[in-house]
Amino acid sequence: MKRIVVLGGGESGSGAAVLAKVKGFDVFLSDKGKLKEEHIERLMKYDIPFEEDGHSFDKIYNADEVIKSPGIPDNLPLIEGFHFRHIPVISEIEFAGRYDNSRKICITGSNGKTTTSSLIYYLLKNAGMNVGLGGNIGRSYAFQVATENYDIYVLELSSFQLDGMYDFKADIAVLLNITPDHLDRYGNQMQKYINSKFRITQNMAKEDCFIFCSDDEITIGHLNQIVIQAQKLPFSQTTVVEQGACLEGDKMCVRYGESSYEMFLNELALQGKHNIYNSMAAAITGKIMNITNSTIREALTTFKGVEHRMEKVLSVGGVMYINDSKATNVNSTWYALESIKTPIVLILGGTDKGNDYSPISELVKEKVRAIICLGVDNRKIHEYFEDKVAEIHDTRSAEEAVQIAASIAKSGDTVLLSPSCASFDLFENYEDRGNQFKSAVRNL
Predict the structure, then answer these.
(1) Which whole-number Å values give the CA distances from 44 to 144, 166, 204, in the listed order?
(2) Among 282, 230, 246, 256, which Cα is nearest to 114's?
(3) How far is CA 142 from CA 102, 125, 342, 433, in A?
(4) Is residue 223 pLDDT above 90, yes or no?
(5) Residues designated as active site
(6) Is the pTM value of this prediction over 0.90?
(7) What is the tens place of the pLDDT at every residue in 253-294?
(8) How far, in Å, CA of 155 to CA of 118, rounded?
(9) Which residues contact 195 (CB under 8 A, 6 or more apart)?
(10) Where along the chain do its domains lie?
(11) How is domain 95-302 classified at the architecture level of CATH?
(12) Residue 186 banded pLDDT, cuts 50, 70, 90
């Protein structure tokens, strides 16, 4: 019996272990940290042996194949040990794709992928389709393949998930944008990160569709270097396109084959330049999936947005508090700053991933009254912004950050949590950071 070892026991790993068990493999799961109670219960329910708080090399290096959670870097000695022994290492998505005949709509990008994935899922659900949502969002794709029976999957894919994918194929692939992110995982080599993002197009055939932003310089700069069989459908806010989506005056116009759809920009539920791109990608997908214009319109006008992404929390004393904890890179923060029209008190910081803050420099000078650092090591933020804003404060908790922000902000201002950084120095994850921020605001 083939032995599958799963490394990492979070949502992705525990789901992959269940699928491996259901498919009759000899499965073992190993995690160097503590497992959450819900994942322990999942493993025990399916009678899957596991270990936590460390790896037993005798139990993992006898694998025939390894499924690695996306959070584990490829360059660890542990992983190199598998390569040395010629044991294949794949991602949960690659493994689950082997057992899934559904149509797969896959979304990646440095920014906007959770919002766009959620919007496409919402659109397909509204159209009455039998659709699942997974990947970098919600329940594990592998667990759903093991326990559900969907006709279509909408999969949000991070670069780390794409790195472990080889034979997997998207039927519709969406590449929203490519901006510097996670460079600490790619040896500070942007090209490696770009190559990772373009893996979403691998194995696509001419009947498949590749949706991409033709305003994104990095995407366009590399598009011609890669052989893509799939039909190319660009979206743009600067040029007119024959097939895909573009702006005509104050309208978004979408064309696919002989079919078209248009709507006024002010009707979109998600406002801001970046959200027009997200809505364009979703609308093109809707046309490919043969969804009626009235259903596309209803979805694009009623979608509520994603938690921790430009989420309005409360207005206190005339000050609006916005939770954008999901902004874990500089470009995400650029979008947030660009879309706010009032003076801003900006909460920034966390685990730096090799950030270059120059893209937000002008917006900070123009709009930001003060920066509040929420992180363990804030030296880089101080060095870059001390001559660009009137004041910078250091904090170690969401509560402290919110209280100082409240003391600085004036009626009509916005307090924006948009950290540009990962959260792991002070929080479990970006959700934990966002939830603690919201709780602190409600306690004001």
Answers:
(1) 17, 30, 38
(2) 282
(3) 13, 20, 44, 27
(4) no
(5) 113, 136, 182
(6) no
(7) 999 999 999 999 999 998 888 899 999 999 999 999 999 999
(8) 9
(9) none
(10) 3-90, 95-302, 311-442
(11) 3-Layer(aba) Sandwich (3.40)
(12) low
Say which residues have a Cβ less than 8 Å from residue 31's Cβ, sequence separation at least 6: 7, 8, 9, 13, 50, 51, 52, 53
Strand partners for 358: none
Task: State the CATH class of domain 311-442.
Answer: alpha beta
Secondary structure letter of residue 23 according to DSSP: T
Laid out side by side, the sheet with 152-156 consists of 131-135, 152-156, 103-108, 172-175, 209-213, 231-235, 244-248, 251-256, 259-264
Backbone angles phi, psi at 165, to 5 degrees: -115, 130
Q: Is 159 helix (H, G, I), strand (E, B) or coil?
A: helix
Residue with tokens 């294949």: 88
Q: Residue 174: CB partners within 8 Å, gap ≥ 6? A: 105, 106, 107, 108, 109, 116, 120, 200, 211, 212, 281, 285
The label of the residue with tokens 């969401």 reads 398
For residue 359, give Cα distances in angstroms to 110, 183, 339, 388, 389. Answer: 15, 16, 15, 13, 15
- CATH T-level topology, domain 3-90: Rossmann fold (3.40.50)
